[in-house]
Specification:
Helix content is about 65%, strand content about 10%. By secondary structure, it is an alpha+beta fold. It has a 5-stranded mixed sheet. A hairpin with a 2-residue loop joins β1 and β2 (about 175-180). α2 (about 30-40) runs parallel beside α5, α4 (about 50-70) packs antiparallel against α5 (about 75-165) and α6 packs across α7 (about 230-250).
Length: about 300
């Protein structure tokens, strides 16, 4: 009974030992090398930037596997596994270095772009400054040309004024320009203008119509013959006659003022007929360009 029971047990024991003997032993160094290689192989940077180094690691790992499959010495398997793992490390470091180089290159390109942008901005700013300066020069040139044209026009206006004033026999006085209509331009002891007086007033009206900023003060004067009231009235009527003639010639009434002084302001003695004739007059005082007339 005992031998029958032990036989199967012996067979079972032999079978178990045989099964254990047929299970391959895992080499930890080789397994570690495979693990390192697999991690590197799944890294996109390593596969793209360190292809040659990773291929060398794969070749060494294949040699380790081949030695293990042939039942080679553990030292040979471990040697190639170690070499493969080191080559994986080299591949990883190579990838890191190239990534760093790319970063530096990219930074350099970016720096160059920044420098280029800065130079472009400086050039644009310089162009704008040149354009501004040119615009200023053009404006100044235009202003000078306009000023020259204005000055030329002003000179022409002044020359025309002087010519007209000369024709009107205007005299410069402390009160400004004064045009005198003598007694002979009026009918004797009357306020009615003679034809020569009318022509003179029409010339004055043409001047005033051309220069509307000008105003006039018309002053009537007489000699000392006759009563004060007669002389005062005559001086006022003669001044008003000139005023009416100017208005008839188109000069606005608001630009004309009149004043009669009678015999109050003689320009000569009243001792002779010729001197009294000088005192019988109408004086027309022209305003300045702003319409101002100095008071007597």
């Amino acid at each position: 009974m005992k031998s029958t029971l032990n036989f199967p047990l012996a067979l079972i024991t032999v079978a178990i030992l045989s099964a254990c003997a047929s299970t391959p032993t895992v080499n930890p160094v080789l397994a570690d090398a495979h693990s390192s290689y697999d991690r590197a192989r799944t890294n996109a940077q390593v596969t793209s930037l360190a292809t040659a180094e990773l291929n060398e690691a794969a070749s060494s790992l294949n040699k380790a596997d081949a030695a293990a499959n042939k039942g080679g010495a553990t030292t040979e398997v471990n040697h190639w596994a170690y070499v493969s793992k080191q080559q994986v490390g080299i591949a990883q470091e190579t990838a890191k270095r190239k990534m760093a180089e790319q970063a530096v290159n990219n930074a350099g390109e970016k720096r160059n772009e920044v420098r280029l942008d800065a130079r472009t901005a400086e050039a644009d700013a310089a162009k704008r400054q040149v354009a501004i300066a040119q615009g200023t020069v053009d404006q100044q040139t235009a202003e000078l040309a306009a000023a020259g044209a204005n000055a030329e026009r002003d000179r022409a206006v002044i020359a025309a004024q002087e010519q007209q004033l000369k024709e009107l026999n205007a005299k410069k006085t402390e009160r400004g320009l004064v045009i005198t209509l003598s007694d002979v331009l009026f009918r004797t002891d009357k306020s009615q203008l003679e034809p020569g007086g009318v022509r003179n007033v029409q010339k004055l009206a043409a001047f005033l119509n051309k220069y509307p900023q000008r105003k006039v003060l018309i002053e009537g004067h007489t000699d000392s013959k006759g009563s004060d009231s007669h002389n005062q009235g005559l001086s006022e009527r003669r001044a008003d006659a000139v005023r009416v003639s100017l208005i008839d010639s188109g000069v606005g009434s608001e630009r004309i003022a009149t004043k009669g002084y009678g015999e109050a302001y003689p320009v000569a003695s009243n001792g002779t007929a010729s001197s009294r004739q000088l005192n019988r007059r109408v004086e027309i005082i022209l305003s300045d360009a702003n319409g101002n007339i100095a008071p007597r």
